[in-house]
Structures are given as structure tokens and as C-alpha cells.
């Protein structure tokens, strides 16, 4: 075979290689193919140069014919390489463009998430599990002495549609009490973000009153809420407007709800048709200040006003109780007065006020809250022998809680995020936080006698809690709390109810 | 009247007027969502309109530009891109904004002269200097060994005009025989080694990447390439027959209303029909509706036989349905 024939064969061979189904190759494969073809062209060009200046004495005409054929083959190959290169560029551009519009699926510390490329559509799946133990020490035979319980087990679905519409659906499979074993809908709401200053929300969600209640269950520094939360409504069904002003330094929320009694999440329907108005303003006045010392200050005021006129509106879901950290009732409204089957019921206006605030600076945090719940109660059955008796009862509570992150991470209203996840091999142990809290709740003295039995129900509870939180990473958390709750009264004519010594532990998974 | 006092009062009145005018002068921003090759046109035009509007109203108009494949741009507007005006390659894309996005009325095309198309263009050939492959007319494009560079009709408005120009010419030359026209178009795309997503990309492929023997596309793009890369490298071949491309414009009513820019958006498009606007159009190698503007601009466009989409294909809706919809004639003829 003469040189020209060999070149042509090579050209044809290269052409065949180049015309292979290129799209089926990956970008690296394409680049390798192009490089190989370029090398081949260089070799051909080199051979062409040799042919154009032959050392032999072959005839000029033969040489000229071979040369022109080879030139054509080289040009053809060059075109094919250019085409392949361009197709490669276009494929890359198309892939980049597709990536810009393709939905993004992610899984990590924030749970499972699917979002459209423009983030106008988002679907999130999250979860919360809190497995607790309660150990009551020297409880005098009270029940339960010790128990394991599934305090919370939640599946949380959240999302965004058409950029400005959000939804949330939280299903509770735990609950930690015999009456709350079956799955319940905890939150179910939709909202429309009109602007930063106005967002409209409808459905079931937390009533905008209390500072600690509004804190996410996963973020609270203590295993159980402090006593002021006993006077605050929990979740309710209604409609709310909220928003931020001044770059988030002032926020508000105001709404109308079915109405929820103290320490209670509302049912999915209204109990009595009366409505409750609730609202809260909260300010971070120095959030944008350059002074680090004052940036973390937040103060606010929450409150509610409504009417409650049935026994079902008694505190703690109609039970008429206030409970300690062990979730044991330490105060109970009378369920029946001697000779009267009618117990104490709510009968009239109910208002609450809760001044509140916190301050966080680096690893240190302090949170304080005061709450007053004023409700008109009724006792008696309206007979001559047992006429109705009414009273406006002001129950008050307050708390101060401090926290300090030993490992130097920032303390905040949100949960602590460890700088380094647990990795003993590298000497990383996550984050550790110590916490301490004092809280108390005072029952209106006017309650005793007619509405509550002073020999059984204390008129005040004082709780001191200390604890340690360990955050191996953003998802897991282990906590231990010790709480000593003392009572004033409630044990016969003059004695005090036995103090409660409680050790709580928790293992939490939140993503 | 005391002349000094009068002069003082006149000065005061003038100062007050200027102050009032200044106090009420507005800064307005428009977004013009356009197709691929109009970057240069609207860069020049926006400056001219800004000066015109400032002189007329005292308001400062800033016009932002967005360019891309015409169909893709229409989809972006439907999906929420806040265009005050659209200036796209074909009416079908604005119809889609009207029908699917409900952002402007269905009769938008009647609101401005010439079916809201302030200029025209056509499809021509750009070949390498000396025309080494001897390309003169449409028949030459389907010969074996000819590499043609059109854009992809599935993504580019200009490429749809190119497809229709090729198809329509083949119909005319074969006595309206659809089968022969399809056969021609099948050969046409078989000779295309690369299909870019837009007209500007096709120019890059041909002129910068040196692929193919002939760029088949917008006349304005061919003239621009000649100006940019030099007459010593390329030359334009005007075929004997081609299509009359009529790129349309429209205010996007709902967006403009929301932005409070209806009046200025309308004026922005109307100014395209003014003498100054038409002259700018001619200088940017588009064929102005007002032929005198081209003369004034010193620009000459080669005459050729032109047919309209309505005459040959029954309008854009029908052409879209028959040729460019998924599974349409283009898909059938361009199977890999």
C-alpha cells in the first residue's frame, strides 16, 4: 500500500471513529476522543509535509495527486473535529442550562427536601423524636415513680408553592400520656407571604402569646417548659396576620382564634363558638447595631382576650389542672362542690398578658417571661341552697432561665449548632451546654375555698431546674435535667404538698 | 411695567417651574425581553428613546434588556419574568404569552401598525470569502458535501423562519408538492452538522468555530457578522426567494400595569415607528417599514422575491401546529 492510500485509509478510519455516536459518550470521553483525533491530524499533516517535499524521485504528477487527496482528507477531518468540539460545547451548555431548571433534591441535617430550580416550589420532610425518662425521687409512693415515654414523635411536612404560598402539616404520634397516644394533627396551616410586612396564615398553629411556647419544641434548652407556659395557650385554630418592619427589628402577629384554655392545644373544631383575639409584638431593637454586646437583646409583649364559658375551657385541656415538670397535676379546680354535681366552669372573659424577653451574647443566654391569666370562673348550680358564685381569678407565673455553651458555640433562641460534630478519633465531642432556671406559679388566693380545695391544692409552686445538654451534631441531642419543685400549701390545713424531685433525660432526633 | 421687576419675576417663575418639574420627574425602569440577535439594535435604540423621553417628560427611563431564544424568552415571561415589553422573533411566541400567561389581550397585534411589527427581515446565506462551494440559491444547500449552519427550529425563532423559508421555496419550485418540499427539507437538515439553540450561537459556530460552508439565517445577523469579522472573510449570498420575517412587539399589559409603566412602555414601542426609530432599525441591518428611513440611513437592502407566512403556511398558529409541535413535520424529518 502506498503512503497516500495509507493516509486515506487512516482518514476514513478516523472519520468512522469521529462519526461514532458521540452523544453517548461522557464529557471526559468526548475530550479524549477529540484529543486523539487532533493528534491524528497532526500526524497526517506531518505526513502531508513529507509528501509535499519527497526525497525520492517519484513523478511530480503522482505526488501532486496524492497531495491534493491528502489535503482534502485532512480538511475533512479538521471539520469533523470542529463539529465534535462544537457539539461538545453545545452539550455542555445544554447540560448547564438543564441544571439551572432541574429540581434539586437534597437530604441532610435539614431533612429531605425537593425544590424547583427557581425555589418557587419546595417540599420538605422533617421529623422529631424525643424519647424521655422520668425518675421521681422520694415521691412518697406517687405515680408514676419512673417511666420511659415517647414524649414527641412527629412527622413534619412543609412546603412552598408558587413562591409565596407555604403550608405546614405536623402529625404527632407521641404525646407521653395515656390520652394522647393516637396520632393527632398538631399543626396544619397555609400561609401567603404578601410582603415582609404582611403574611397571612390560616389553620392550626401556635397562638402568638408566650415566648417559650412559641419556641420550637426541638430548640428549647430544657426538657419541659417552665411554669409560665401553664398559663399560655398552645396551638389554636384561626387566622393570623404577621410581619416584620425595620429590617426585622420589629415583628408582630395578631389573629382571631377559636380560643384555647391555658396550657392547651385546641381541638380541630370550636368548643363553644366564642372567639379569642391574640397578638404579640416583639422587637430586636439593636439587631443591626455594630455593638455585639446589645445585638442579641429581644423584648416583647403577648396577650389575648376572649370569652370562655364551658368546663371544657378549664386549664390543661378541660382537666382544670396545672402540672409540674413530671406532668403530674399539683393544682386542681374543684370538680364538684359538696352537695352539688356542678363543678367549676369558666364563665366569662379571659385575658392574658405576657411581657417577655431574652438576651444572647456569644455563649451566654438568658430568657425571662411573666404571664398573667385572668379568667372569670363560676361555681354552684344556681339553686337557693347552692347559688352561683363568680370570681375573676388572676393566676400569675414567671421564669428566668440562663444557659451557657461550654464549648464556645453561640447561644440563641434557636438550638445550639456544634462547631465540630462528634468524632472521638479527632478529639471532637460536639457541643455541651449547661442550663439553670427558676420559675413559679401563683394561684389567685380568691380561688381557694369556693373554686379550689386548699387542703389538696397548693397556692403556689416554685421550680428550680438545672441541666446539661449535649449536642453531638445538629440532629442528635441528649439532655439531663434535675428539677426540684416546692409547693406552698396543699397538704391538709397547714402543711405543704411534698416537694417533687425529678430527674428527666431525653434523647432527641430532630431533622 | 418695570423691566427689572419683570425679569426678576420671570426668573423666579422659571426657577419654580424647573424645581416643580424636578420634584415630579421620575426614574422609570423598563424590562425589554427580546430575542437573540437584537442586542445591538436595542442597545442603540434604548439610548435614543431615553433621550427622547427625557426631553419629552423630564423622566429618566432605564431600559434593561434580556436576550435569548424567542420561544425560551416567551416561556420565561409566562413563568414570571417581569417584562414590561416583549420584542420577539415571531408572533406565535407573543400569542403564547397571551394565551398561556394571560398577560396581554388576544388582539395585541392590532394595537400597533403593520401587525405590531415595526421592521422586517429575511433569511439569507453567509458563505466564506470567494464562495468556494459555489452556493447561489436554495438548491445548492442540499448538495452532498455542503455543510450548512442553521439554528434549531425547536428553540430558535429565527430558525423557524429559516425552516419556513426553505420549505416555502421548495414548495414554490415543485409546484406546491408537499412530498418534494419535505424531501428537500430532510436533505437540508441532513447537511447541518450542528444545530445551535439560537441565531447568535449559529453565527458563532460558522464564523468563529469555522464549521460549515454556509450560515443560513437572519439577514441582519449575516450583515453584522460581515461587519464584525470583515468582508475579507465572508460574503453574503441573497437567494432568489425567501420569506418575509415580521418580528413583532407588544406591551405586556399586566406587568406594565403592576409596575405603573403602561404609558412609557407604549411610547417605547411607538417610538420604533418614528423616523428616528426606523433609521436606527435600518442602521442595525433590519428592514424598516419606512423605506425612506433606510435611504436616510444610507443602507441598501438587496431586493428579492419574498413570501409571507400567511400566504404559504396559513399563519403562525397553523405553521406551529403542522411543523414545529412535538411530532410535527420537523421532528419527522429530523429523526437522528
Shape field of chain B: globular
Helix content of chain A: 10-25%
With strands numbered from the N-terminus, the spatial order across the biggest sheet of chain B is 2-1-3-10
Uncertain spans of chain A, ≥5 residues at pLDDT below 50? 1-25
* CATH topology assignment of the largest domain in chain B: D-Maltodextrin-Binding Protein, domain 2
- The SSE string of chain B, one letter per element, is HEHEHEHHEEEHHHEHEEEHHHEHEHHH
How are the strands of the biggest sheet of chain A laid out side by side? 3-4-5-6-7-8-9-10-11-14-15-16-17-18-19-22
Can you describe this structure?
The complex is a heterodimer of chains A (511) and B (336). Helix content of chain A is 18%, strand content 43%. Chain A is α+β, with helices and mostly antiparallel strands. Chain A folds into two domains: 3-98; 104-152 and 165-510, Porin, CATH 2.40.160. Chain A has a 16-stranded antiparallel β-barrel with strand order 3-4-5-6-7-8-9-10-11-14-15-16-17-18-19-22. In chain A, strands 12-13 form a two-stranded antiparallel sheet. Chain A has a two-stranded antiparallel ribbon with strand order 20-21. In chain A, a hairpin with a 4-residue loop joins strand 8 and strand 9. Chain A starts with a helix and ends with a strand. In chain A, 32% of the residues are buried. The model of chain A is unreliable at 1-25 (pLDDT under 50). Chain B is globular, with a radius of gyration of 23 Å. Chain B has two domains: 3-118 and 247-297, Periplasmic binding protein-like II (D-Maltodextrin-Binding Protein, domain 2); 123-244 and 304-333, D-Maltodextrin-Binding Protein, domain 2. In chain B, helix 8 runs parallel beside helix 9 (219-229) and helix 12 (275-283) crosses helix 13. In chain B, the strands form four sheets. Chain B has a four-stranded mixed beta sheet with strand order 2-1-3-10. Mean pLDDT of chain B is 91; it is low at 14-23. In chain B, helix 2 links the parallel strand 1 and strand 2. Chain B is an alpha/beta fold and 336 residues long. Classes of the chains: A alpha+beta (511), B alpha/beta (336). The interface between A and B is small, with 11 and 12 residues.
Amino acid at each position: 500500500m502506498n503512503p497516500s492510500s495509507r493516509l486515506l485509509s487512516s482518514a476514513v478510519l478516523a472519520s468512522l471513529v469521529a462519526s461514532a455516536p458521540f452523544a453517548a459518550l461522557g464529557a471526559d470521553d468526548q475530550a479524549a476522543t477529540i484529543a486523539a483525533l487532533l493528534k491524528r491530524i497532526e500526524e497526517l499533516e506531518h505526513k502531508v509535509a513529507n509528501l509535499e517535499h519527497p526525497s525520492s524521485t517519484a513523478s511530480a504528477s503522482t505526488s501532486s495527486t496524492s497531495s491534493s487527496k491528502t489535503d482534502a482528507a485532512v480538511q475533512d477531518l479538521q471539520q469533523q473535529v470542529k463539529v465534535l468540539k462544537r457539539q461538545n460545547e453545545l452539550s455542555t451548555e445544554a447540560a448547564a442550562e438543564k441544571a439551572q431548571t432541574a429540581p434539586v433534591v437534597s437530604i441532610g441535617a435539614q431533612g429531605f427536601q425537593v425544590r424547583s430550580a427557581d425555589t418557587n416550589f419546595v417540599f420538605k420532610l422533617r421529623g422529631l423524636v424525643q424519647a424521655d425518662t422520668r425518675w421521681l425521687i422520694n415521691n412518697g409512693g406517687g405515680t408514676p415513680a419512673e417511666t420511659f415515654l415517647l414524649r414527641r414523635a412527629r412527622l413534619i411536612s412543609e412546603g412552598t408553592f408558587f413562591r409565596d404560598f407555604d403550608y405546614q402539616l405536623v402529625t404527632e404520634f407521641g404525646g407521653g400520656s395515656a390520652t394522647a397516644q393516637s396520632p393527632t394533627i398538631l399543626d396544619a396551616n397555609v400561609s401567603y407571604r404578601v410582603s415582609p410586612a404582611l403574611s397571612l396564615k390560616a389553620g392550626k398553629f401556635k397562638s402568638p402569646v408566650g415566648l417559650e411556647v412559641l419556641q420550637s419544641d426541638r430548640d428549647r434548652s430544657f426538657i419541659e417548659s417552665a411554669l409560665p407556659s401553664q398559663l399560655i395557650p398552645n396551638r389554636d385554630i384561626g387566622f393570623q396576620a404577621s410581619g416584620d418592619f425595620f429590617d426585622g427589628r420589629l415583628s408582630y402577629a395578631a389573629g382571631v382564634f377559636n380560643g384555647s384554655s391555658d396550657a392547651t392545644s385546641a381541638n380541630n373544631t370550636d368548643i363553644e363558638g366564642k372567639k379569642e383575639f391574640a397578638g404579640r409584638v416583639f422587637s430586636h431593637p439593636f439587631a443591626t447595631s455594630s455593638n455585639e454586646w446589645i445585638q442579641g437583646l429581644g423584648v416583647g409583649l403577648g396577650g389575648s382576650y376572649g370569652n370562655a364559658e364551658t368546663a371544657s375551657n378549664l386549664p390543661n385541656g378541660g382537666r382544670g389542672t396545672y402540672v409540674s415538670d413530671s406532668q403530674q397535676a399539683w393544682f386542681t379546680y374543684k370538680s364538684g362542690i359538696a352537695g352539688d354535681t356542678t363543678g367549676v366552669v369558666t364563665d366569662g372573659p379571659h385575658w392574658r398578658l405576657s411581657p417577655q424577653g431574652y438576651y444572647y451574647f456569644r455563649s451566654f443566654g438568658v430568657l425571662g417571661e411573666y404571664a398573667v391569666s385572668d379568667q372569670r370562673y363560676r361555681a354552684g348550680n344556681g339553686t337557693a341552697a347552692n347559688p352561683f358564685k363568680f370570681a375573676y381569678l388572676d393566676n400569675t407565673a414567671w421564669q428566668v432561665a440562663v444557659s451557657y455553651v461550654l464549648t464556645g458555640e453561640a447561644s440563641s433562641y434557636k438550638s445550639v449548632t456544634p462547631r465540630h460534630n462528634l468524632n472521638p478519633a479527632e478529639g471532637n465531642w460536639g457541643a455541651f451546654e449547661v442550663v439553670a432556671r427558676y420559675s413559679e406559679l401563683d394561684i389567685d388566693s380568691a380561688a381557694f375555698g369556693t373554686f379550689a380545695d386548699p387542703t389538696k391544692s397548693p397556692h403556689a409552686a416554685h421550680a428550680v431546674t438545672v441541666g446539661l445538654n449535649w449536642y453531638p451534631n445538629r440532629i442528635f441531642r441528649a439532655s439531663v435535667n434535675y428539677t426540684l419543685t416546692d409547693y406552698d400549701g396543699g397538704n391538709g390545713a397547714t402543711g405543704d404538698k411534698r416537694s417533687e424531685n425529678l430527674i428527666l433525660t431525653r434523647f432527641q432526633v430532630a431533622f | 411695567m418695570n423691566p427689572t421687576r419683570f425679569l426678576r419675576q420671570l426668573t423666579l417663575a422659571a426657577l419654580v417651574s424647573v424645581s416643580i418639574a424636578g420634584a415630579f420627574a421620575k426614574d422609570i425602569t423598563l424590562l425589554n425581553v427580546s430575542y437573540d440577535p437584537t442586542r445591538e439594535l436595542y442597545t442603540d435604540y434604548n439610548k435614543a428613546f431615553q433621550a427622547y423621553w427625557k426631553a419629552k417628560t423630564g423622566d429618566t427611563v432605564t431600559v434593561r434588556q434580556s436576550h435569548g431564544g424567542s420561544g425560551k424568552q416567551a416561556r420565561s415571561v409566562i413563568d414570571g419574568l417581569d417584562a414590561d415589553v416583549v420584542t420577539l422573533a415571531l408572533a406565535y411566541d407573543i400569542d403564547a404569552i397571551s394565551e398561556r400567561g394571560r398577560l396581554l389581550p388576544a388582539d395585541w397585534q392590532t394595537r400597533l401598525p403593520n401587525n405590531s411589527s415595526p421592521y422586517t427581515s429575511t433569511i439569507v446565506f453567509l458563505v466564506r470569502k470567494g464562495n468556494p462551494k459555489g452556493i447561489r440559491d436554495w438548491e445548492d444547500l442540499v448538495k452532498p458535501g455542503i455543510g450548512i449552519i442553521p439554528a434549531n427550529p425547536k428553540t430558535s425563532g429565527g430558525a423557524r423562519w429559516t425552516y419556513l423559508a426553505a420549505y416555502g421555496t421548495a414548495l414554490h419550485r415543485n409546484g406546491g408538492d408537499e412530498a418534494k418540499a419535505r424531501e428537500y427539507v430532510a436533505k437540508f437538515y441532513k447537511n447541518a452538522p450542528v444545530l445551535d439553540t439560537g441565531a447568535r450561537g449559529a453565527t458563532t459556530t460558522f464564523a468563529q468555530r469555522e464549521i460549515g460552508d454556509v450560515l443560513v439565517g437572519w439577514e441582519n445577523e449575516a450583515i453584522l457578522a460581515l461587519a464584525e469579522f470583515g468582508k475579507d472573510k465572508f460574503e453574503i449570498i441573497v437567494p432568489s426567494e425567501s420569506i418575509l420575517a415580521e418580528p413583532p412587539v407588544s406591551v405586556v399589559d399586566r406587568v406594565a400595569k403592576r409596575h405603573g409603566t403602561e404609558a412609557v412602555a407604549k411610547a417605547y414601542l411607538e417610538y420604533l415607528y418614528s423616523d428616528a426609530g426606523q433609521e436606527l432599525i435600518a442602521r442595525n441591518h433590519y428592514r424598516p417599514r419606512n423605506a425612506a428611513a433606510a435611504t436616510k440611513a444610507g443602507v441598501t437592502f438587496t431586493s428579492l422575491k419574498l413570501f409571507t407566512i400567511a400566504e404559504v403556511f396559513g399563519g403562525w398558529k397553523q405553521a406551529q401546529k403542522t411543523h414545529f409541535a412535538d411530532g410535527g413535520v420537523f421532528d419527522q424529518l429530523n429523526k437522528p
